[in-house]
Structure to design on (394 residues):
């Protein structure tokens, strides 16, 4: 029979062990590594996490409680014991970070945030599922893959050009066309967006498809979105595997300026500014801004939010990202777990502000695996205001 304290330590060590190896997995998924390696590492991590309590538990259970300290004092058992202690330390870090995240509030620049959720399942049911890979996952209890959040942010920025007061962006990310959700789902989404106010600028921040045939969905779906001033797009890591030149051509036909890893001088409401695309680290070289005008407002589309600190260094004032899907599965009290980012869960969704950069991260619309638990798909509408305008956070 295992001692109560031993059981508690084993539990803490398991949490720390899972946190450590999930962190390594998240970090690797942020990098341009071969898909087969990443897939293999994912299974390896799952086995490692699940095996821990069985292996450690059976080792400890075989030792009489009064001999535990003695048993872990030398040889391999000592290394195992030390690893267990390190894991207990990681579990403490996990608890502290999770509490900090739970207490986190949107930055002051967020003047208002409103979300409207659309659910087409009651009306269309199984017609939304389609024939893509993993379609059986859509019927898992609690899967919100067909519930779309339309989140509207009003964001106040310092040094906003006067004529940009009220400028609106529509941001779509991570469509992952592969058959599930079906074409009907995306048609309904577009109809809904067309019913709303016409944005000044539409931004698409990558990951359009997961097959070699769904390029044909890009133009008829995304080409329907109108914009008063501009339509910009970049590619994501999944597009790299499915003829990226064809993806760019389809986006261009749909009326988008495909920025790739470049910056351009543009004029929005008569104000000259710089718009930057960042498709790295999957597509290189990263954008080079040394020649860009230093006094112009800088907007960036980056597939991953991992470029937040790069954007700060480049004096980018506004950046839109996707890629992380909000973690896809969010556990009560804990939040996201699997987030393909070098920074783990830090930038899993929402607004982040460290001068001079405001970064807005979308949870995206779909995924290669159609699973969303307490993490609805999301479209963003962002309205800009000058900081110190009359409105206050609502
Ligand atoms: Fe991605």
């Amino acid at each position: 029979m295992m001692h109560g304290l031993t059981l508690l330590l084993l539990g803490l060590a398991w949490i720390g062990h899972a946190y450590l190896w999930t962190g390594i997995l998240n970090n690797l998924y942020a990098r341009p590594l071969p898909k087969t390696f990443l897939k293999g590492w994912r299974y390896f991590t799952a086995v490692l996490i699940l095996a821990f309590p069985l292996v450690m538990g059976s080792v400890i259970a075989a030792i009489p409680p009064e001999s535990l300290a003695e048993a872990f004092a030398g040889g391999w058992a000592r290394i195992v014991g030390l690893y267990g202690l390190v894991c207990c330390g990681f579990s403490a870090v996990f608890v502290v970070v999770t509490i900090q995240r739970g207490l986190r509030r949107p930055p002051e620049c967020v003047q208002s945030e409103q979300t409207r959720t659309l659910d087409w399942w009651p009306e269309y049911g199984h017609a939304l599922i389609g024939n893509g890979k993993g379609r059986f996952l859509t019927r898992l209890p609690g899967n919100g893959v067909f519930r779309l959040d339309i989140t509207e942010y009003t964001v106040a920025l310092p040094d906003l050009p006067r004529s940009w007061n009220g400028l609106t962006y529509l941001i779509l990310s991570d469509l992952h066309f592969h058959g599930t959700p079906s074409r009907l789902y995306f048609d309904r989404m577009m109809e809904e967006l067309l019913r709303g106010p016409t944005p000044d600028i539409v931004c698409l921040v990558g990951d359009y498809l997961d097959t070699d045939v769904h390029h044909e969905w890009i133009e008829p779906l995304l080409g329907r979105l109108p914009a008063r001033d501009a339509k910009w797009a970049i590619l994501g890591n999944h597009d790299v595997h499915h003829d990226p030149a064809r993806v760019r051509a389809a986006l261009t036909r749909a009326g988008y300026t495909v920025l790739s890893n470049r910056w351009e001088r543009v004029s929005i409401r008569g104000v000259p500014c710089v718009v930057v695309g960042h498709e790295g680290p999957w597509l290189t070289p990263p954008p080079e801004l040394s020649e860009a005008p230093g006094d112009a407002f800088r907007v960036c589309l980056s597939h991953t939010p991992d470029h937040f600190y790069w954007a700060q260094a480049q004096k980018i004032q506004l950046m839109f990202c996707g890629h992380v899907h909000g973690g896809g599965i969010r556990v009560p009290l804990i939040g996201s777990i699997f987030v393909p980012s070098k920074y783990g869960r830090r930038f899993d969704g929402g607004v982040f502000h460290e001068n001079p950069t405001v970064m807005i991260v979308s949870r995206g619309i779909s995924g290669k695996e159609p699973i969303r638990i307490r993490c609805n798909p999301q479209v963003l509408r962002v309205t800009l205001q000058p900081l110190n305008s009359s409105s206050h956070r609502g």
